[in-house]
Amino acid sequence: MSSNSTQNRADRLRGLLNPCEPAIAMSSHNALSAKLVEEAGFAAVWVSGFEISAANAVPDASILPMSVNLEVTRTMSAATNLPLIVDIDTGFGNAVNVAYSVPQFELAGATAVVLEDKVFPKDTSLRANGRHSLVPIQEFQGKISAAKSTSSLVIIARTEALIAGLGQQEALRRAEAYADAGADAILVHSKQKTPEEIVSFCKAWDGRVPLVIVPTNYPSLGFDEVAALSKVGLVICGNHGIRAAVGGMRSVFASIRHKRGLHSVEATIPSVEQIFALQGDKEMRLIEKNYVR
């Protein structure tokens, strides 16, 4: 992707981070799911580290090499015109690693990266009894500065202070420091089953940059209620793509096996022709017609 195209997407995303009307990003783990996100009318694609890990049948714990996430980002960039918000976890190391990795994701077609303040290797946020140690504030500020100085991407700094049980004041202290270091937005995450903790944080936030939330654990908080807080510029649907895919495949596979035939599911799943359309078959046939001799 050209630098102008990347810059255009980044500028478009910055314009979407409107606390009065938050943008909604849907999770994705490959090019096909990214196309479905665009088809459904969402504002952006969340290139989810959790989903990519799950699609490779490994835990979300800094196991996959950066090359896997880069290739997924490249294929998504070719498949959709939506901004790509890429989950890069802890940035694959310290500030030196961040200074290398962030430009690689920019070249691959990312619009934004989300960088979190956990110690490498990270553990997925919502796992019970997970490892949630955080790096010192100054160290993470260095990572943010490294990301800002080496790319034109939207840099979203994610604090896991609430996940780690450190409380609202520590979460606010970190969020303020990360905004001071140049973050374009602050992602604050919570593992509480109700939205009170995140709503309290939003109300206490001074609004110097937009907030980003991921209401996986507190789905009762609707998008209109988020907008009413006037602090959140982006809501990420964090893992619904892979969960929907797993649920759909389990249901179809079980039906075929137990009813001993394909007849039981044919009317309930997309046709082969619909899959052809998602693959760009029409465009390929036109190329064949015009150029294949």
UniProtKB/TrEMBL annotation:
GO terms for molecular function: hydrolase activity. It holds the Pfam family PEP_mutase. Keywords: Hydrolase. InterPro entries: ICL/PEPM, PPH, Pyrv/PenolPyrv_kinase-like_dom, Pyrv_kinase-like_dom_sf. PANTHER family: PHOSPHOENOLPYRUVATE CARBOXYLASE, PHOSPHOENOLPYRUVATE PHOSPHOMUTASE. NCBIfam families: Pphn_pyruv_hyd (TIGR02321). Belongs to the isocitrate lyase/PEP mutase superfamily. PEP mutase family. This is Phosphonopyruvate hydrolase complex with Phosphonopyruvate and Mg.
